[in-house]
Amino acid sequence: MPSLLLAAKNLIAAPGGGPTRVLSPGFVRVENGVIAEVGEGEPPGPPDADLPDGTLAPGLVDLQVNGCFGHDLADADEAGWHEVVRRLPETGVTAFLPTFITAPVEAQAESLRRARDLLPGLPAGARVLGVHLEGPFLSPKRRGAHNADWLADPTPEAVATQLETGLVKLVTLAPERDGALDAIRTFVEHGVVVSVGHSDATAEQVARAADAGARKVTHIFNAQSGVHHREPGVAAQALADPRLHPGLILDLHHVSAVAARVVFAAAAGRVVLVTDAAAAAGMPPGAYELGGEPIELPAEGPPLRADGTIAGSALRLDAAVGNAVALGVDPAAAVDAAARVPADLIGRGDLGRIAPGAAADLVWLGPDHRARTTWVGGRVVFQGAS
């Protein structure tokens, strides 16, 4: 693979493996798909590309993608998977976890087996890092858009079924369900990150889940017990517990601007920006599906079930970064929340950063924070209008 030298007016990087910061200007040298050198100032030679505005950032990592571009990944066919993988780099995403929401455990197992068989034939594009199972071990009180008929306790047999393919990297569950703490320990023993979500748990119950190994909270404030001064719930523990990483859908519909600022202030360095994108993402208003059930994307706002329940989002991850910056979050911290923090959380320290030795997954974000060019392993996988 040929070398690549990029010069950028602004570069969000971790030179020398240190803290992420903005270099203005900066450069990146890539050899064989891996970042070989990161520097501040002018590049050591004529660059292959000079990025005169915007920001060169690490490729974004999305841990919650139900689908997009008209496809729900839990039941998408091969062509659907190919389109999602090819087109996610349009949004700055270079790696992601397809997310399968609540279904009967055996139906989830079949979706996992189908995904396993499809992975070797996927085209160049965003990396598939595994699968996120959001359910069915959720609270009926906080089910959101999940089908109540399919909710269940995490029995040892059900957990074993979910683990069969080895594809599962993240599981969302409610720790107050019978058998949940034992399930958390089993998942963690198998290298699966556990996230508390769709839960009516008390803060104490969430702390016990963290004691058992849980390390994330799914879409903070949404479909969970909240922040009450005498009866703190999931959201309060997510903000207060340094072991937990609150996931945040920053479309300014799921969570208000004020609440989002609270999350970044209280959980600095722990926030994980996610899209929770549904099949409607990247599509015009109309009818789509999530988890095999109908949803409607209105002209404004997120997709909805027929009863008005929010059902995923139509958010782009590069837009979430832009929204964070617009709220006053430091640009390096905003990018970290969509790149380094999620990558580290699922054990992929080679992703989500511009640092020597990391994979050359990069995105040039314009001044509007939308992706202009995206590289995976040093190769261009998306080239927009500059």
Automatic annotation (TrEMBL):
Residues given in the record as substrate binding sites: 145, 222-223, 230, 254, 310-312
Amino-acid positions noted as binding Zn(2+) in the UniProt annotation, renumbered to this chain: 134, 198, 219
Keywords recorded for this protein, A-Z: Carbohydrate metabolism, Hydrolase, Metal-binding
Short name of one Pfam family: Amidohydro_1
Listed InterPro entries: Amidohydro-rel (IPR006680), GlcNAc_6-P_deAcase (IPR003764), Metal-dep_hydrolase_composite (IPR011059), Metal_Hydrolase (IPR032466)
Cofactor binding, per record: Binds 1 divalent metal cation per subunit.
Cofactor: a divalent metal cation
Domain Amidohydrolase-related as annotated: residue spans: 56-381
Residues in coiled coil: none
Active-site feature positions: 276
GO biological process, one term: N-acetylglucosamine catabolic process
Family recorded in the similarity comment: Belongs to the metallo-dependent hydrolases superfamily. NagA family.
PANTHER family listed in its UniProt record: N-ACETYLGLUCOSAMINE-6-PHOSPHATE DEACETYLASE
Name of the featured protein: N-acetylglucosamine-6-phosphate deacetylase
